[in-house]
Amino acid sequence: MDAHWHKKCFRCSHGLCGTLLGERYFEHEGSPYCRSHYLELAGERCAACDQVVDGGLDGIGGAVLAK
Question: Quick one: which of 64, 21, 20, 15 has its CA closest to 43?
Fold first, then answer.
């Protein structure tokens, strides 16, 4: 993100969240997000239940399994 922000203005871009972001943030389509909203928007989803797979992933026999 090639932009400049005041510390007090650097907040999650998801709806009404507005969580103040620090050095750790996640970018999606040019906007900053907190971890939970980034995962909601861009995270990998489980093929069985469609919930976000949060955590490390391993590939086994062509399948990717959450740790």
Answer: 64
DSSP, collapsed to helix, strand or coil, labels residue 22 as: coil
Q: What is the pLDDT of residue 46?
A: 86
Q: Confirm whether pTM is higher than 0.70.
A: yes
C-alpha atoms less than 13 angstroms from C-alpha of 42 in its C-beta half-sphere: 12
Residues in the chain: 67
Answer yes or no: are the C-beta atoms of 44 and 57 closer than 8 Å: yes
**Helix (H) and strand (E) counts in the chain:** 1, 4
Host H or E run for residue 38: helix 35-42
Helix, strand or coil, per DSSP, at residue 21 = coil
Q: How many CB atoms lie within 10 A of CB 34?
A: 20
